[in-house]
Specification:
The chain contains eight helices and 33 strands. With about 625 residues, the chain is α+β, with helices and mostly antiparallel strands. The chain has three domains: about 100 residues, OB fold (Dihydrolipoamide Acetyltransferase, E2P) (Beta Barrel), CATH 2.40.50; about 140 residues, OB fold (Dihydrolipoamide Acetyltransferase, E2P), CATH 2.40.50; about 300 residues, Deoxyribonuclease I, Chain A. The strands form seven sheets. The chain has a seven-stranded mixed β-sheet, with no helix packed on it. It is elongated, with a radius of gyration of 27 Å.
């Protein structure tokens, strides 16, 4: 489940602190609305102010009677940043525990300039929606989470003096997004590093031009289910050239299309009900466009509700006689201390939806006590609970193989000792060839009396290489089926944690984690080449959560010239195993050598997790299945 940019959906400590701070602000707001006396948290504007962009005191001017669109300007930053403005007029549209949003009811007609702004008051403001106000203060570009968060700045007025002129006024007319209103770009988030401001072409500029404004969405479909932070991604109806779409209505991430037409709906101003992929807005919703955690976010100020789309979970076909079925499945930090319902849920999926594959390459298996950091590394109890649950669900009795990692050497949750493991059934003629396994020693392909074999099975591939420092090591095993030897490599490449966001400060986003994945991919590719040097006709499978896309540099390195990614053999609309911020994408792959590809009879990605609510799934990944019809020898 490793993710940041584009799966351990890892938040940095800084992000977690600011997420908690924001939550505190929201709870304080609701307490205040309810009439409770709750102290407001203090957020000092100077703490996150970009001092290098400030104007020296001697240069600061007082700009009297400015309109909001003049302060916002047609750009990513205010042209009046660092200046004091006086008597800025507007209507309050929403408030929080640390300030309020206001908007000019008389727009200038320029779609490139926002007509709204956030006024930071530090404490719960007196101003309420419908109040006409005049505000004087300092124009500042505020970075949510601080400069180190790599977030885009939001234009604020700070050190504010607020005069309430009247109350009970109508709110400004919201800007409609979608059919009959403004159409967001549908392909590019930013293609010039912010050098040009192009709201008609770049998604980043489009949403910047609407910053803090009231928006209206009349109808929309959900393209990413509610996440742990109650965020839902929706697509407004009637957006021309939206897509490409998955076979089940999601938005596909492509190398040249990041889908800026999607809008992230959040609950910072008002609670929002859960929704799953395919659900639809039941009625029009009005809200504020805000920004935090690397995303522009639509914050409803009125009740939102959804009609259920009724998306169902898919089921694979069972193997036919003589077919070998291999799957890659990320089981999301499974350990023996998990709720028994997790094991029964996984077992139900394996037996009833995946039809009990022959070999399962499982990622994110944890040790027997999970994140209890007591030196335990064995995962036999974790496997046993899953195996027993499969039997109870009516499936075969599987066996497992792995090589336990050295304590806290493979990344993931501290104490969890995450690893890749094999689960396999032997009732259909499949056998595992055991030759031991040492967590510190590398497994190598060797020729023994002219026959290709592994000196360690199960074994680990270059476990001491710097590329696998603090990261999961690839597991390799030797299997026999229908008289054929099959070499299976299970991999879980390092996460995207550390990459900057699609709507982040850096454009194009920085893919700092990619370098390590490329190094890991190169090592696995060379290992496959070693096997093929000894036997060009070797049947080799590389399966796992690669934490990257089929068109990415790590996957290009992994494929080389001798491996085929079977996911790419599927129709484009079926190519996704994970949904992140509304982008349906491939993170899980099965790659095979050409001799094994010749035996390939079918590929299936079984969509039963990624599109659904956390309460309806057992993992955040969908499994990939490959069917091979091997002639008996």
């Amino acid at each position: 489940m490793d993710y940041q940019l584009g799966g351990e959906k890892a938040l940095s400590m800084t992000q977690m602190v600011h997420r908690q701070l924001l939550t505190g602000v929201i709870f304080t707001l609701f307490a205040t609305v309810a009439g409770c006396a709750a102290p407001a948290p203090t957020i000092a504007p100077e703490a996150t102010k970009d001092s290098s962009a400030s104007v020296a005191e001697s240069q600061v001017e007082a700009v009297v009677g400015n309109q909001i669109h003049t302060i916002q300007g047609a750009g990513l930053r205010s042209p009046l940043e660092g200046n004091t403005v006086t008597d800025v007029a507007g209507i309050v549209t929403a408030f929080r525990a640390d300030g309020f949003y206001m908007q000019d009811p008389n727009p200038d007609g320029d779609e490139g300039t926002s007509e709204a702004i956030f006024v930071f008051t530090d404490v719960v403001p007196r101003a309420r929606p419908g109040d006409a106000v005049r505000v004087s203060g300092l124009v500042e570009e505020f970075y949510p989470g601080g400069l180190e968060s790599n977030n885009q700045p939001i234009t604020h007025i700070v050190e504010a003096e607020v005069e309430i002129i009247s109350s009970g006024n109508d709110l400004p007319t919201p800007t409609l997004i979608g059919a009959g209103g403004r159409m967001p770009p549908t392909t590019v988030i930013d293609d010039d590093g912010g050098k040009q401001f192009e709201p008609q072409q770049d998604g980043l500029d489009f949403y910047e031009s609407l910053e803090s404004m009231l928006l209206q969405i009349d109808s929309a479909v959900v393209v990413a289910a509610s996440n742990a932070y109650k965020e839902i991604v929706i697509l407004s109806a009637g957006i021309s050239q939206a897509g490409p779409f998955t076979s089940r209505g999601g938005l596909l991430l492509r190398i040249d299309d990041q889908n800026p037409e999607r809008i992230l709906l959040d609950d910072s101003l008002r609670p929002v009900p859960d929704a799953a992929m395919g659900d639809q807005l039941a009625a029009s919703v009005v809200g504020i466009l805000d920004y935090s955690f690397g995303n522009y976010k639509f914050q409803p100020i009125m009740k939102a509700s959804f009609t259920r789309g009724g998306l169902s979970k898919e089921t694979a076909r069972p193997a036919q006689e003589g077919e070998l079925v291999i799957t890659s499945y990320n089981v999301e930090n499974l350990d023996a201390r998990d709720n028994p319902n997790r094991f029964s849920g996984l077992a139900n999926q394996i037996v009833n939806h995946l039809k009990s594959p022959d070999i399962m390459v499982l990622e994110e298996i944890q040790d027997n006590n999970g994140i209890l950091n007591d030196g335990t590394v064995d995962a036999n109890e974790t496997y046993r609970l899953l195996i027993d649950a499969i039997v109870e669900a009516g499936g075969p009795e599987y066996q497992f193989r792995d090589v336990p990692p050295l304590d806290n050497r493979d990344g993931g949750e501290l104490g969890g000792n995450i690893r890749v493991g094999f689960l396999f059934r032997t009732d259909r003629g499949l056998q595992f060839i055991d030759r031991g396994g040492n967590p510190s020693a590398a497994s190598e392909p060797v020729a023994n009396a002219g026959e290709l074999e592994l000196n360690q099975s199960p074994g680990r591939i270059q476990p001491n290489a710097s590329a696998f420092y603090d990261s999961r090591k690839p597991l390799v095993g030797e299997f026999s089926f229908q008289g054929h030897k099959i070499f299976v490599i299970g991999a879980h490449l390092n996460s995207k944690s550390g990459d900057t966001a699609l709507y982040g400060l850096y454009q194009p986003p920085r893919l700092d984690s990619e370098r390590q994945r490329i190094q890991q991919a190169n090592i696995i590719q060379r290992y496959v080449a070693q096997i093929q040097t000894l036997d060009p006709d070797a049947l080799v499978v590389v399966a796992g959560d690669m934490n990257d896309f089929q068109f990415s540099e790590p996957l290009i390195a992994l494929k080389g010239s001798n491996l085929t990614d079977v996911v790419e053999l599927l129709p484009v609309e079926e190519q996704y195993t994970y949904v992140y911020e509304g982008n349906s994408q491939v993170l899980d792959h099965i790659l095979v050598t050409k001799p094994l590809e010749n035996w390939l009879s079918e590929v299936d990605i079984v969509h039963l997790n990624a599109e659904f609510l956390a309460s309806q799934r057992t993992s955040d990944h969908d499994p990939v299945l490959a069917y091979f019809r091997l002639r008996k020898e």
